[in-house]
Amino acid sequence: MSHAANLKIDDVSAYMRELGQRARAASRALAAATTAAKNEALHNIADDLDTRRAELIAANRKDLDAGASKGLDAALLDRLELNNARIDGMIEGLRQIAALPDPIGAIFDMNFRPSGIQVGRMRVPLGVVGIIYESRPNVTADAAALCLKSGNATVLRGGSEAFHSNQAIAGSIQRGLELAGLPADAVQVVATTDRAAVDLMVTMPESIDVIIPRGGKGLIERISASARVPVIKHLHGVCHVYVDDEADPQKAFNVALNAKTQRYGTCNTMETLLVNETIAEDFLPGLAAAYWDRDVELRGCEQTCRILGSDCVPATPADWDEEYLAPILSIRLVSDLDEAMDHIARHGSLHTESIVTENYSNARRFLREVDASSVMVNASTRFADGFEYGLGAEIGISTDKFHARGPVGLEGLTSVKFIVLGDGHIRQ
Amino acid sequence: MSHAANLKIDDVSAYMRELGQRARAASRALAAATTAAKNEALHNIADDLDTRRAELIAANRKDLDAGASKGLDAALLDRLELNNARIDGMIEGLRQIAALPDPIGAIFDMNFRPSGIQVGRMRVPLGVVGIIYESRPNVTADAAALCLKSGNATVLRGGSEAFHSNQAIAGSIQRGLELAGLPADAVQVVATTDRAAVDLMVTMPESIDVIIPRGGKGLIERISASARVPVIKHLHGVCHVYVDDEADPQKAFNVALNAKTQRYGTCNTMETLLVNETIAEDFLPGLAAAYWDRDVELRGCEQTCRILGSDCVPATPADWDEEYLAPILSIRLVSDLDEAMDHIARHGSLHTESIVTENYSNARRFLREVDASSVMVNASTRFADGFEYGLGAEIGISTDKFHARGPVGLEGLTSVKFIVLGDGHIRQ
User: Fold this and answer.
1) pLDDT tens digit sequence for B98-130
2) Which residues of B touch A427 (CB under 8 A)?
């Protein structure tokens, strides 16, 4: 069974220190683990989850009952639930990560220098990754698998409402690791619901190299405010589509409609549409009709509402900074590309920005000058996603510029060190 | 003249906020600046420094006089001094950075995905870089030049003892920028010696994207402790050379001697020598004689001192963690590669580690398993350096794993964003 579960937790601080030391020790073994051992562990975990479905569902039942009696709302209870389909999803995810190429140990850019040494880089794990997340227990398996494949030890701290589910998944992970000859401590799930554990995790740079919070903006801001460890943050997505005066109208219609309506609650959904004023009268009414058909509320600038009439809600200044995550769209007319890029620089959240245009120079300027984790030409913002980009899987989307930017896959969980090969070379 | 100098500074907090906002605004122009404009600015700055040597030396005289009357020691006064040779050095550095390839805007890894979109990466600036440094005024020109070339705006905060020198250099930088049509605010030197400015700089994530402290361990620890902005840290270097039982004795002798004695005060100097016990009796006495010839104090483990006799100082446990930065070396015998790597994992500072061996498998394991920013085979640790590695110049050496590791050149001052090219593509 889980090592963590064997520890007595009356002193949370000592417990977390112990957990951190075990993770640090395990990280050395994991950094040196063969690709075969890591893949075997991932398949073992998948097999273990598969054969212990009943246990898993029973543990999850405890969480669901406790949640229901605490009065959690239906949406939260739904996210918390583990059923056979969701267990299938976890298993499938583990096997997909096993099938991805191993990034660790890759050597590149080896060049000889005038001194005679040969210098290059080797991709290495970050070390110990701390994951802090909320109610969905499948994150336990997904996050552990990505960290394991990238050679990192992991300390996972899930939401208290998923405690029993997470501990059951942890059991499968640790059995899978040991069966593959890897240390069980390579993945540890914090076995206390004491919130002090989170404060401790983000202030243990000696044991944890990076924190990845997965959850709402509130969680992430709280963690960032107290962290003494680097945090890969995903704050929010205020994404724009700019329809240029040289846009192909059909492409613009398709992209604008898809970027807003393909899903409403995702961070890469467009929240504000910017339209060049010279084409707005021709372009906007047809598009607005399509939005209204789908019950999307339109909040327009003065000019937009003049074109669209009384069904258009006048936008307030706050609308330009809003992440609606809902069937609401703000629309603003701009006089040119520069005004569009100024608007994005002021109101965007560095997430995903798209231009629709057939004009080569405008496309090129937009790609170069817009500061965001994903910048697109003639494509829906909804494509900003690890799977769509071919990363295989993602542990999150970073809205930071430091280290990893945009969808974070295996490579975002690694670092590179310099390697130097000589033949007894000394510096003159 | 310098914008900063035009500001009244009775409210440091308002002043720093204003500085930060100007930097943020300038960073957009700089991110979009052409390679030609950036290089022209670098040459302009070099020309301006060249023609204003007298002004520069006069400003530096003020700092030197103030320093002398404050009783600064000779070493500090020496670091503070700007003479013609040092001004030549700054000018040469600026022209070298102009000659380096521009990393910004480079596009790579563009691949088509099954959906039809083409996804790749573009190298982009980090945004605004804050540099906090101590007495050497040439850092003002070096750091500004690296940030400028990599498309970042910069806020520089030098030591109070170099105040007038730094302001004079800032004048040259800002004239050089404006002459090239770039915003003077792209490089701002904080025009107050109030230490509150440092505390403010490290807590303005809305204006500053990353802090690079250049100075002693004390400065860096103080900054890291209060920073709310990512910090590229260079803490210290406890570097090892491990002489394997299958080392070529002549290579081992050369590397061990060079790694310790080529310079004593640098972070990539070896501080502890690990020797396989099976070769120690043959190998150590000759090497020890060479060290003693150079007045290097040897502090050995029990076995080492048994071999080397009474001139060997018995090492205490504290010696294994010490960065001497002096002609002192600790020596420890180990039974095998694993014990050597265990010692390094326990006592190393993740900086630079080298193995001397002719054994293929040991070399390969050391390269893969040792966690440090530079890992070497048969080469002196003294090679760990941006120039030696071909980075052209370095803004520092990172002992962090996150973002940049080891010598940080232009690329370490950049990030990559995803770019997506479509033809009206929407997500299904």
Assistant:
1) 999 999 999 999 999 999 999 999 999 999 999
2) 258, 262, 380, 382-383, 388
